[in-house]
What we know:
The structure is a homodimer. Chain A contains 18 helices and 18 strands.
Amino acid sequence: MPDKKQIGNTQLxxxxxxxxxxxxxxSAGSLGFxxxxxxxxxxxxxxxxxxxxxxKGGTIAGxxxxxxxxxxxxxxxxxxxxxxxxxxPEALEACRKKxxxxxxxxxxxxKELGTxxxxxxxxxxxxxxxxxxxxxxxxxxxxxxxxxxxxILPGLDFSHESGPVAFLAQSGGMAGEFVNNGKSxxxxxxxxxxFGNGVDLxxxxxxxxxxxxxxxxxxxxxxxxxEDGRAFFKVLKEVTAKKPVIIYKGGLSQSGSRAxxxxxxxxxxxxxxxxxxxxxxxxxxxxxSWEMAQASLAFVVLPERPFQRVAVVxxxxxxxxxxxxxxxxxxxxxxxxxxxxxxxxMAILPKPGSSAxxxxxxxxxxxxxxxxxxxxxKTGMEEKIDLQILxxxxxxxxxxxxxxxMTLDEATPYRNLGKAIEEVQGQTxxxxxxxxxxxxxxxxxxxxxxxxxxACCLFFEKGVLTFENLTDAFRAIAQVSRYYTRREAGxx
Amino acid sequence: MPDKKQIGNTQLxxxxxxxxxxxxxxSAGSLGFxxxxxxxxxxxxxxxxxxxxxxKGGTIAGxxxxxxxxxxxxxxxxxxxxxxxxxxPEALEACRKKxxxxxxxxxxxxKELGTxxxxxxxxxxxxxxxxxxxxxxxxxxxxxxxxxxxxILPGLDFSHESGPVAFLAQSGGMAGEFVNNGKSxxxxxxxxxxFGNGVDLxxxxxxxxxxxxxxxxxxxxxxxxxEDGRAFFKVLKEVTAKKPVIIYKGGLSQSGSRAxxxxxxxxxxxxxxxxxxxxxxxxxxxxxSWEMAQASLAFVVLPERPFQRVAVVxxxxxxxxxxxxxxxxxxxxxxxxxxxxxxxxMAILPKPGSSAxxxxxxxxxxxxxxxxxxxxxKTGMEEKIDLQILxxxxxxxxxxxxxxxMTLDEATPYRNLGKAIEEVQGQTxxxxxxxxxxxxxxxxxxxxxxxxxxACCLFFEKGVLTFENLTDAFRAIAQVSRYYTRREAGxx
Lengths: 492, 492
């Protein structure tokens, strides 16, 4: 048998982009895991061959069900195993004998049960792996890889387009949650793997693979435990020297580590060790999947460099106060603009009520994009500024709609604003980050949410980063900034 | 002139519930501040008499415009002054001479400009106040008091119903933001005052008033500066002994305190002094208006006592891990259930994949309300439990809708869930807090947001507290819990 490391990537390429796959454990007409997996793959538009397997035979979704794996003609890249846990070893052994490259074992009922039976079953699976087949799982959702045309069970409507973000998760639920969160922000994914108990393929090898994967620019991980801390740390350092790795570590609390044992049978490890390891390896640490999605977004959209000095522009004094407080709490500075700049800004702002030291207060939240553009060009041209924040209260346009004649979509100047910011970013070569707070979230205000979502898509297409609130924004920018600062320092 | 303290509350009652008010500075047909104020009051349904004032006369919205204040027959409770700053002293002096109880000065252009003219104008206003008229402002939005039928300019569609939450803010924008945030959570308000530069009525006196106001159960404040720290601290301690006071202090950073000066001309004060004062006075400290709205909600809905030991129920292992980690990070414990309880819970949960030590993992997110009710009754009856958390992923029901035959509203079992939780709360006498995370926020997922908002209204009506995520939930519960723990300790 050739060395695992040598052929690892080729094997993984075939597993991520399977041309021929078997689904083991489907029953004609039933709504079990196996049948739902096939329906999901078909609906997702998988272009390769699907071979359902069940001893009873029959057909499902127009496909012939093979009674045994051996009957399937030709090679198989991937087998998706969905039979109950006690039947898994036999199915996996059949896969190995047939020469299937890899198997996803979706079934639960292994070590995570904490029972002697569960542990014995998992050991059996491990022994088969040793004999030569790659395994994702058990107790997992498997792989979502748009370029390979495959998705996970709750990933029926994930995007078909590839993108720069990869995700590794012990938890299947977390994989679904993270892809959905990312998708709602406009993110696209290269490879997502839910590996559950991780008897074979897991954090270290997959991270190494993604570190070398040219499709992947940002790597995210939800981790409950680690198999070999030393090996993982080594690979982690190698990968973070090339691309950002964002880790959400679950189970660092007492009851959380207890929950981890019954979830993926992992040993959580101490908070001190984890946090020190992540710090030393320049890992971006996050506390939940939403933070992870937002940090990914910031890494994808922002230029690859640190940011320190911020200009803030908004209409409303308390907004500026809040932006300043939040910026400083995340380690940013708001330099005071030179008097000449302040005067040039004041010349174009409504009065009284405006001010221009930094933050710039445009006095009211309805200042049109054309004026904001002029302000942002002046503040953005300041040498002392690395990045700009613009706060816009889109909900105020609802009162214009009430005065009649326009839809909310027409009244909200997001198209002009997108153009204005695109031009400012182009001319200043500094990012402008848009904060779109929405305090109006009642049942009758869904129209505001609709326009906000449409606007965010448009801004994302124009390379403009948007956030719903200041804390989310500054946290994500600080994460990007800290990563590049430390990566540059590490290179010196 | 009688002592301010003695008659203060009677004066304030008349200002909050004016039967006759003047709006000074309206021009027929124009869209200035004054005209918009009148339109807002009429639209809001103010039931008293409105007297517009402008030297040019005319009519507005069917009301006669008086050329001078003196011409108006009879007494006035309130005057809303919207003329440009240089004309404010004259208008205010006319009000005083007429015997108007109080004036809201909405106009900006005073001390916050930092110019000698602005400072001089503010001093003039102060001298008139000394001669005997109460003033809210200048540079403010004034008062929203549903029982008095009055609202602030951006408060056209605020609720007409009174409720238990009061809010004091130096910032008008913040007043609008907070009421909207609160409204979207189902909160109702007693009195909201935006007092801007606060030449007369401001934090200390208004807090004292609200402390004695039987309508007000929870007091929220957005503060930029304080006029008399010692007096404020004294009143603060008196009030927090009776009801919770939630403070969001803006401008504690360097650039934030600079922004405060140009916003409301306040001196921000040092972080150390503020934080120590707030801690000593058992103030609930928050970092933004959203946190403040959520803390208010928790105070309004939860019983008045501390909570320490939490049971967590959800469907999905990573959810339980996240809930445990978050709970402990806010100081809560998750006691392990006795084996007998675990067995009784396991007997009703789907297998494999479930576990019941605490957190309880129901194995999948689609477990029906009837089963959840049985679980929550068992966990809630545990002596060691003070409060329960139930995590529900409503977005999974979208896939059921896709399978046909039902609307999302029908497919999402929120009505049954509301009934189930209401019964559990009734039988256990312990709150069940519902977490409704939504990772699907794309443009085409507005239906999920619609059902979530409808469901939250229903839950709120049944006295069930809901949050969108674990961090928001545990932060708010911890704030409530800490307040009552410290209040009880203070009484001993």
